Amino acid sequence: MPFDIATPSAPELKTLFSSNVRIHDIPSYFHVNAYNHPDIPVMTSANPDEVKGVMWGLVPHSARSVGEALSTRKKTLNAAAETLFSAELFRNYAPHNRCLIFVNGFFEWRKGENGKTPYYIYSPDHKPFALGGVYASWDHPDWARPYGCSIITTEADRLMTEINNTKFRMPLVLPQDKWSQWLDTSQHPEQIMELMLPFEGLTAHPISSIISDREMDSNVPEVQQEIILPPDDWF
DNA sequence: CCAGACGTTGTT
DNA sequence: GTCTGG
DNA sequence: CCAGACGTTGTT
DNA sequence: GTCTGG
User: What beta strand segments (E) does A24-63 contain?
Assistant: First the structure.
């Protein structure tokens, strides 16, 4: 579901943490698509004292070739909350390899009478927020990106039900007071399952078609700019 | 973005 | 070569 | 048996 | 590693 996100810069990330959290230098994006497998800012349960770039697209530990890694990672961009602890590909990582993925917002399309309209969804305070994820590492002589992650999806909240009005899903958003619990590997699956709820409290506005125009670079600030829709198209 | 398909249908 | 599913 | 998948959900 | 479609 979230295949399109905006990610914070290192200075933006620093506003979320005390100075003893190390923020690595990570490229930031006004918009990036999952299928480009970008490095995105991640805090892992193994290293909750740093935020580093991790490839979007989990490669399981058991991958046996680069070809298998390439074909698997594009199917592990998302992981459904409901089956996180049972799905073959994720169940080995769900208990101990959870992570937080920091975004400025994400993009989703609303189906209307006159086609689909893209929306930018973000925190009303315009600060970065955290998505729940799962990660794995894979070592191979011909592979330079040891860590890959998946963004967890869950049921849509009220706002996302209006926007993602065909799938009714949204990324798992974890409020700051749940971050340490999410990264705590001593938590039981049931306790973690209880955290994977729809999140109320984001806001959204419609945006132009820059995001879907092949001729344009969508990694520009304007991709997030609000446009005014004809009244009938709003919800 | 990019790996994989792209097609039809009686053979072994 | 081009399309398309992920 | 064993090669290939193992997943999620698209607007480019 | 484990499951499954053929």
Answer: 29-33, 39-44, 50-56
